[in-house]
């Protein structure tokens, strides 16, 4: 495990149902990320929330997961993102952590967002599904969009040994200020790094990388693109010594 590495957050507009278009956009930015890095991409970026044909969306997403596993092996990357996934006849919004060619974590979204119909379309995960992944970029705790509003989720993940919270989101523009405040707050209150990727267009953009002091290392605006910041995991120990919270 590396103590220092670069983190990238990709942000772009996902169009529901425009699978190939979305994937091509992702690859354009993904190819700009450096080797041996952590990369976080927006929630359900391959398909959007394509509720009109969830089977089709889940099949395309399988291909994307397989592709990213291959790419991550060749570039020595750790990649975090969510997809529509079908398991035992049920659909889930599942977050994946791919580390150098291997899927090391997959879990369903625990807190579904009711305003966009997620509660009708997806099965929710349970708190017992929450977990962290030991990767080449430290212990990664993946978080999905609306879960950002629940501090108890982050507390549990910290107790599991989280070093970096990786947030994959489609967070609406109308709640941009909530996004800005909560991403910083979750980092500060847990004294951990946070790398958050968000969609653009109708979404708020403003992907962000925050260190355990709450310092913003990088932040995107509303345009499509990538941001990057240097992660030094030893900062966690420094913060905990100077500002003990236990």
How many helices? The count is 6
Overall shape: it is globular
Mean pLDDT: 98
User: What string, H for helix and E for strand, traces the elements in order?
Assistant: EHEHEEEHEEHEHEEEEH
Strand order of the largest sheet: 5-4-3-2-1-12
Helix proportion range: 25-40%
- State the distance separating the first and last CA atoms: 26 Å
Contiguous uncertain segments of 5+ residues: none
Radius of gyration: 16 Å
Instruction: Tell me the strand percentage band.
Output: 25-35%
Alpha-beta content class: alpha/beta
Main sheet properties: 6 strands, mixed
Strand elements, count = 12
Give me a quick take on this structure.
The chain is α/β, with parallel strands linked by helices and 246 residues long.
Task: Give the tags.
246 residues, alpha/beta, six-stranded mixed beta sheet, 12 strands, 29% helix, globular
Explain what this protein looks like in three dimensions.
The strands form 2 sheets. The chain has a 6-stranded mixed sheet with strand order 5-4-3-2-1-12. The protein has a 6-stranded mixed sheet with strand order 6-7-8-9-10-11, with helices on one face. The chain has 6 helices and 12 strands. The chain is globular. It has 246 residues and is of the alpha/beta class. Helix content is 29%, strand content 30%. The longest helix is centred in the N-terminal third of the chain and has 22 residues.
